[in-house]
Amino acid sequence: MTFQFPAVIHASRITFPKAELWVPVLSGLQHAAARNMMNEKIRQTVRELVTNQGSLDDPRAEMQGFFELKTNEKNVLSLSLFNYAYTGGAHGLTLQESLSFDMGTGRHYSLSELFKSGSHYVNRLSELIKLQIATRQIATLNPFQSIRPDQSFYIADRALVLYFALYELTPYAFGFPYFPISIYELSDIINPNGPLGQMDRSD
Length: 203
Prior knowledge:
Elements: E1 8-16, E2 19-27, H1 32-53, E3 62-73, E4 76-86, E5 93-102, E6 107-108, H2 121-135, E7 153-156, E8 159-163, E9 178-182, H3 195-199
Parallel strand pairs: 2-3
Antiparallel strand pairs: 1-2, 3-4, 4-5, 5-6, 7-8, 8-9
């Protein structure tokens, strides 16, 4: 496999009343169609986050958007998009969505597509998270049972990082609970042609 050079990423500032968003824009990739697909998916996700925050009609309302780059190598681009908004009430709320792409094709991957078909990845990942909850003594709102088949994730170096929304697993004050899992713990079920398989290659 021929790997792409890392993507060139710059932040584009978007403003509208009571809001300032910094949105990643990709360039420097060999395949224009792949680049355009990824940029459009990023813009679409940013729009969805804005919509999900609801109205900014409250006189005190404000919104801020930003992003974090997680992986930009070996044809894999993984990043997290954040949107903080105060719309009234005791405190604001931060939403997070993460996207993981194959930079050669522009394909966006769901969690299930990281693993071999029929691999029972949900059970495997859920057991690993249960172990981390116990080891790290994380206080959960309710006893943890299982991840969702489409659980939020990003890829960082040679780890799959699963996470939960605010209030989904832990109290608000805990922030986003993140669970990094080494790809080497999952090597037998990883889709070799997916992003996790590419991160495991030495070439």
